[in-house]
Amino acid sequence: MEWETVIGLEVHAQLQTKSKAFSGAATKYGAEPNTQACAVDIALPGVLPVFNKEAARMAVKFGLAIGAAINHRSVFARKNYFYPDLPKGYQISQYELPIVAKGQITIDLDGVEKTIGITRAHLEEDAGKSLHEDFHGMTGIDLNRAGTPLLEIVSEPDMRSAKEAVAYLKKIHELVRYLEICDGNMQEGSFRCDANVSVRPKGEKKFGTRAELKNINSFRFVEKAIEFEVERQIDLIEGGGKVAQETRLYDSDQDVTRSMRSKEEAMDYRYFPDPDLPPLVITEDFIRGVEKTLPELPDAKRARFMKDYGLTAYDAGVLTASRELADYYEQLVRASGSDPKIAANWVTGELAAFLNRDNKDISASPVTVSMMTGLLKRLADNTISGKIAKEVFEAMWNGEGDADAVIAKKGLKQITDTGAIEKVIEEIVAKNPKQLEQYRAGKETLFGYFVGQVMKATQGKANPAQVNELLKKKLSA
Ligand code: ADP
Ligand code: MG
To answer: What is the model's pTM?
Structure first.
């Protein structure tokens, strides 16, 4: 039997407001436990929540970016459940009326585009954290995160493979970072996702029973967790069993999912409007104001890079993966006046490789736009060859100064003086009579050998094009 996978994702993006959703406490990550939890966050009796307008601004920004309608009136509800890291005994969320209604996003998988529906995005508050490892036999509770604003983005069950789910997740990740509403840090938990997974016989219209996978904190794990779960469900059904509607945890060490609890139905949460919070009213003016702050979105930027700079879809994709990288590239093209494709090669090649090697963000690159500009200029005016340029780049990366300083200090200036190159060629040819004879007898592969010897003798500084031309003349003479 052939099976079809059905996936819907719930993404939790921590909104990067300075203070919490309903209190004035700071949201900064990494503080001493419980130093950023005020009376509201720890739920002392008598406190009242006051909504942070900045969170609404960010939610609206996201809604506009996915072409969604913004609900002019949305309602905060209490979602009741009991857990040690939830001091109120309920989480403030939005249920029947979320701030962001239906929208959509387009993913691209190996050149094939597909639209994924977004059911809704709503505001809610985060819970605290349970620390199981710090205290022997006890659990510690850190409420610093309690009350941090989250945007929960719920997709339609539109994805049909783990790869599509990852592509969707990456797209949302890229978007929230472009919009500067979430830092996207998955290790710190500011961008998390639950994957709902079911299978059904191919051709069947009705959805199968879903399992909800929690605790997935990297793109790679999303893919692995879903793949494991799909196999598990198919094996189960083919063995005569039935998939239970449940919440499962992904264990990345064992690469398996494990049952955590049977899934609550909505009524188990006893949702009701929070009597302490008035409905959230968003005016048309507010929406238009937010609209003015929208940056150029990733898809538009990619299309423009392809059109304006003649880049391939792949290069444009790499260069627009973050706003910072795209800005770096554009500034470089403008400042250096160099061929956009050459600039693209340097940014996606050498620069990306070094950033990756040293695990650095583009904003922390030791080779700044102006240093890279200097390098491309010396390459364009033939002061250095492409090969030497890589050496200069590495020296700049290691803090040895800008391109001109490195070239001067290390004497890397390219030799373009025909006479000087000819002199070296004479010497090499004189030293290799046997190879010369073989070459002239037809062993043309030896040409590369001669080029290599000349480059070696000049420490790679001879202009390669000139070496080729002059050698050809000399060898066939
Ligand atoms: P809950 O809060 O109970 O998880 P939501 O409606 O918030 O419910 O989220 C449901 C998520 O599960 C959505 O992303 C939806 O697309 C997805 N989903 C619903 N039914 C299925 C199914 N049969 N198979 C896979 N995903 C599903
Ligand atoms: Mg869910």
So the answer is: 0.87
